[in-house]
Amino acid sequence: MLTFTIRRLVLAVPTLLFISLVIFLLLELAPGDPMAQVPLTVPPEVKEKMRLALGLGEPTHIRFFKWLVQFFWIEPQVFIDWMTTKSAIASILPDTDFYTPCGVGAAAECDLRILSWQTRSPVMDIVVQRLPQTLWVVGMAYIVGVLIAIPIGIYSAYRQYSVFDQAGTFVTMIGFSIPPFFTGPLLIVIFSVYLGWLPSIYDTTLKVVSWDTFVIQFKQMVMPVMVLALQTTAQISRYMRAAMLDNLNQDYVRTARAKGLSEAVVVMVHVLRNSMIPVVTVIALGMPAIFGGAIITEEVFKVNGIGSLLIGALFANDLPMVMTLTFMFAILIVLFNLIADILYGVLDPRIRYD
Amino acid sequence: MTEASTPRIGALQDNEPPKPHRSRGADIWAQFSKHKGAMLGGGFLIFITLAVLIGPWLWGVDPQKLDIRNKDIRPLWSGLFSDAKTSWARPFGTDNLGRDHMAQILAGGRASMAVGWAAMLLSLMIGTFIGVLAGFFRRLDGVLMRLTDLFLSLPILPLLLVAVTLFRQPLRANFGPEGGMFILIVCIIGVTSWMPTARIVRGDILALKEREFIYAARSIGTRPFAIIRRHLLPNVLSPIVVSATLGLATAIITESALSFLGVGFPSDFPTWGKMLADAVPRMSEYPERVLLPGIAISLTVLGVNYLGDGLRDALDPHIRGR
Lengths: 354, 322
Hints:
A: MetI-like fold, B: MetI-like fold
C-alpha cells in the first residue's frame, strides 16, 4: 500500500503538469482581448506596452513556464515567509525572507507574483480573502449533508420499501431533482420576502464577536447551507442506500446472523463497514463537485467566495485568475482522488493494486 | 408390472404441477411494476416527452410571438383568488413581452429533454467503454484512470462556460444558431460527465473479475471480449442504468444551469432554465413565472430519478423476487 501511495504521489506530478497545460492551452484559445476595454483614443504603441506589462508579449510556452515558476516556486516562498512571520502557529520558527518583492526601488533580481488582470494585485491574496467564506458555507453544507445522508441511507436500505424508506427516498429525490438555482430563489422569496426571517444576502463583513453577531451569522448561513446540503444529502444517501442494499443480501450477513450476532452489530458493523467503501469514494469525489455547484449558490446568495470569484473572473476575461483557480481545484481533485483510492484499498482487501 | 413392483416413495412425488416458466423480462417487469414511484416517474417521463413532442403541434401558438397588448396576463388559477388579469386563451399567462407561457414551457421542454437524452446517451457510451476497458485490462487501467482523473480534475462549469464561448461561432455558422448550440451543449455535457459512470463500472469490474465464475469462464477458454459481453456487462448493468438515470437528470440540470447563467441557447429561444432566470428579478410579483419552469425541471428530474430507482431494483437479480 505504501508503494502504491508513493507511486501515485509521483504520478500525480506529471498528471498535474498535464492538467495545467490543458487548462492553459484552453484559456489560450479563449476569445476576448484583455485590452478590449481600453478606450480607442489610446495609441496602438501604448496599447502594445500595456499588453507587455500584462505579460502577454512572450510566446505561449515561455508564458506557461513563467506561470509554473510563479505558482510552484514564488508563491510558496511568499507563503513560507507569511507562515514564519505573521501566522499564529509557525511564527516561533525563525523569520525567513525568501521572497523579494518588485516595485519602485526594488533590487534587480525580484520575484513577480501571479497578478490578476482585474485588480493588478496578487491572485493568491484575493484567494486568501475569499477562502474563509467558501470554507464556512460550502464546507459546513458538506458536513451537514453527509451527517444527514448516512443515517437516512442506512435505515432506508435496512427497511427497504417501508414508509420511512419511501419518505426518505422521496425527500432525497426531491433534493436531487430541484436544482440550486430554483431552491435558492424559492427560499429567498419564502423566508426573506414573505416571512422576513432570514437575510437574503450573505454579509461577508460581519465579524462574530458576541452572541448577537453569532445569531446573525447563523441566520445568514442557514439558507445557502441548506440549499447546498440538500444536494449533498440527496446524492450521498442514494449511494449509501444502494451500497447497503448490495451488502444486505450477501452470504456473510446471513452467516453473521446465524452465529447469533445481534442485529445492531450485523448492520452497523458488518454491513456498514462494507457499504462505506463506495460511499467514502463518493464523499471524497464529491468535494470538488461541491466547489463547482457552489458557483450558482454563491451567485444566488451573493456569498463572495471562491465560486463567485471564479465566475466573475471568467466573465471579466481575467485569465491569470481563472488559470490559477481552476488549477487549484485540479490539485484538490487529484489529492482527493488519491485519498479515495487509498481508502478504497485499505478498506476493501478484495481490491488489489500491487 | 413395473408399476406394481416399484414402491411409490412419497417424497419423490410431484404433487403440484410445475410453475409456468417465466422469462427474465417478465420477472423484471413484475418487480418494476411493484415500485409505485418508478411507475409514476416513468409515466410522468412518458407524459412530458409526449407533451413536448406533440404539444407544440396541438397548442399551435408561436412561443416567440410578441403580443405587447396582452402582456403580464396571470395564469387562470390566479383569477380564482383575486381580480388579476386572466384569459382563457392564455391558460398559463403571458410574460412581460406578451409571449404565451404555455407555448414557451412546451418549446423549452423540447430543448431541455432533447439535450438531456442526447447528452446522457453520449456520456453513458463513453463511460461504459472506458470503465470496462480500465477494469478488465490491467495494462490500460493506469492510463485510462489517469485520463478519468484528468477529466474529473477539470472544473466542469467554468470549462463549459469557456467552451461555449469558444466554439459558439463556428458551430452556429455551420448548423444554425439553435442546431449549433444543441450540438455544442450535448457534446460538452457528454464529454465532461462520463467519469462517474466509468469509475463505478471500473470498480464493479475490478471486484467482479476476481470472482469464481469469471475464473471458470476463463478456464474453459472464453476469450476476453466474450467474458466482457457475456459475463461482465450483464452484471454491471444495474449500476450503468442507475448512472444513466443520474446522467439524464444531471444533463437536464446542467443545461438549465447554463441557460440560467445566460450562456446557453440564443436569447429568444426558450428553455426552462432561461425562463426561470428571466423571471427571478420579478419573482415576488409574478411567482408563477419562476414556479412553472422550476417545477417542470424538478418534476422531470424527479420522475427520471424514481424511474432509475425502480429499474435498479428490478434489474438486480439479488433483489428481484424478494
